């Protein structure tokens, strides 16, 4: 995901409807960052956005739908750039996207709030899954293209490779609470790439290697 603490530039064509959505999603992100998922309320979001409560309840209905829409918007911003290049370029761009997201002063707190809530709340977990399904799916397309070019073994699971690059970064920040930097991202890419070239992400071969 590209760095940037706020949802600047998310107003799409559509006049007032688009402006209302952008204001509400920005307010939702701000409330999540400050209060966390479990203290998020529709009324607080309405007040912060300067939008009538009836408008928010009519369009979104519940706080979970608000958070799901926010995560959808954030996922759109994390899409890979066109022409991402070689598989090394793709994986490094993906790792940098995660790095920038998690270390951003505002966005990182937002993501951490949803991740923390997802541990014990199935609705929050659903919103988080939707975010990562979208993000990983888009990045995996570029890995799949690299497989077709012969850069990785046939049958390599692009989505699993993208997850393998991202997972150490999340573990380092969310579990052991160690700082993240460019070196950390580069090491994650290098290790995942070695495994991918050895066939670890080809489902049948990967299973054999594990055995």
Automatic annotation (TrEMBL):
Q: Which Pfam families match?
A: TetR_C_11, TetR_N
Record's keyword terms, sorted: DNA-binding, Transcription, Transcription regulation
Q: Which residues bind DNA?
A: 41-60
Q: Keyword Cell membrane: yes or no?
A: no
PROSITE patterns attached to this UniProt entry: HTH_TETR_2
Top-level lineage group:
Bacteria
SUPFAM superfamilies for the chain: Homeodomain-like, Tetracyclin repressor-like, C-terminal domain
Please state every residue range assigned to the domain named HTH tetR-type.
18-78
Entry protein name: TetR/AcrR family transcriptional regulator
Q: Which organism is it from?
A: Nonomuraea ferruginea
> Taxonomic lineage per UniProt?
Bacteria, Bacillati, Actinomycetota, Actinomycetes, Streptosporangiales
């Amino acid at each position: 995901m590209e760095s940037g603490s706020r949802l600047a530039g998310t107003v799409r064509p559509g006049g007032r409807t688009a402006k209302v959505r952008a204001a509400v999603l920005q307010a939702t992100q701000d409330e999540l960052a400050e209060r966390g998922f479990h203290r998020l309320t529709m009324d607080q979001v309405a007040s912060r956005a300067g939008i009538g409560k009836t408008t928010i309840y009519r369009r979104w209905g519940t706080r979970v739908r608000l958070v799901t829409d926010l995560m959808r918007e954030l996922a759109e911003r994390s899409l890979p750039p066109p022409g991402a290049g070689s598989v090394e370029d793709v994986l490094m761009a993906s790792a940098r996207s995660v790095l920038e997201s998690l270390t951003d002063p505002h966005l990182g707190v937002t993501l951490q709030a949803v991740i923390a809530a997802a541990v014990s709340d199935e609705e929050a977990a659903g919103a988080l899954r939707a975010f990562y399904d979208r993000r990983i799916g888009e990045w995996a397309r570029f890995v799949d293209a690299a497989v077709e070019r012969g850069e990785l073994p046939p049958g390599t699971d692009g989505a699993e490779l993208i997850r393998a690059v991202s997972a150490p970064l999340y573990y380092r920040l969310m579990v052991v609470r160690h700082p993240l930097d460019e070196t950390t991202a580069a090491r994650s890419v290098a290790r995942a790439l070695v495994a991918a070239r050895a066939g670890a992400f080809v489902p049948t071969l990967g299973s054999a290697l594990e055995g």
